[in-house]
Structure to design on (258 residues):
């Protein structure tokens, strides 16, 4: 179901090494700071909503990206996976309809997390994971981390489409919103088994009011919560556009499920 040159003895190459080393150290510091913030947010998640937590995490990711000027594409791995875990919690509110997708997200998060943990410095940028697998010629094979990134990105596409429709079309039924979101984000990539399971699950979707009530913090006004969903969509769209451009660059954008 998503190298570095070693320094030589010349002054020029030593200078280059110092520059690369300094940039790596800066990324390590930023990564450690991100982990500390992640631990704090994990402790506080019960006092907030998944939407607010996702806004905080994407905002942190954007700041980390701004601070990293030496990479053409920089997607902080831990922050990206944290957002995907928040998506799982959002899908839980939809109910059994999303069981297959939820399990898929969880497995792909675990796969990328394991890869990141194997070398936190090297894989602090998720793009480096893809680059290594492309160099090895395994990006399309088996349970590759590159394929995990592809499917996590498509799951985020679905989530953004869902939230966007909830914000822009307040009179549309929840079942229609979920079906439309699935059709434009996942359907063309799924095999017939996944598509059939989704169609059956559509009948188990909660109504719109129930879904929003389950998602929003207690005592928060509906209008404020809807505005937060809109903010999250606006933050996620540019990030997803960049990830899709990365997938296209490495010819991973057309992968389908078996």
């Amino acid at each position: 179901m998503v190298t570095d040159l070693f320094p030589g003895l010349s002054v020029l190459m030593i200078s280059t090494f110092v520059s690369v080393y300094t940039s790596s150290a800066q990324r390590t510091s930023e990564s450690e700071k991100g982990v500390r913030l992640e631990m704090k947010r994990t402790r506080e998640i019960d006092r907030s909503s998944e939407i607010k937590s996702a806004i905080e995490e994407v905002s942190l990711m954007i700041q980390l990206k701004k601070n990293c000027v030496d990479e053409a594409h920089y997607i902080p791995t831990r922050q990206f996976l944290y957002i995907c875990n928040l998506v799982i919690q959002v899908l839980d509110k939809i109910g059994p309809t999303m069981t297959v997708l939820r399990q898929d997200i969880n497995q792909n998060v675990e796969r990328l997390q394991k890869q990141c943990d194997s070398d936190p410095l090297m894989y602090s940028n998720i793009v480096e994971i893809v680059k290594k697998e492309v160099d090895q010629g395994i990006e399309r094979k088996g349970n590759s981390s590159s394929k995990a990134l592809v499917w996590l990105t498509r799951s985020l596409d679905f989530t953004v489409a869902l939230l966007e429709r909830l914000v822009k079309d307040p009179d549309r039924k929840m079942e229609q919103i979920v079906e439309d979101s699935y059709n434009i984000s996942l359907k063309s990539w799924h095999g017939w088994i996944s598509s059939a399971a989704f169609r059956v699950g559509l009948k188990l979707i909660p109504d719109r009011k129930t879904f929003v009530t389950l998602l929003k913090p207690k005592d928060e006004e509906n209008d404020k919560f809807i505005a937060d969903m809109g903010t999250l969509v606006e933050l996620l769209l540019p990030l997803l556009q960049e990830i899709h451009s990365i997938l296209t660059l490495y010819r991973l954008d057309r992968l389908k499920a078996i």
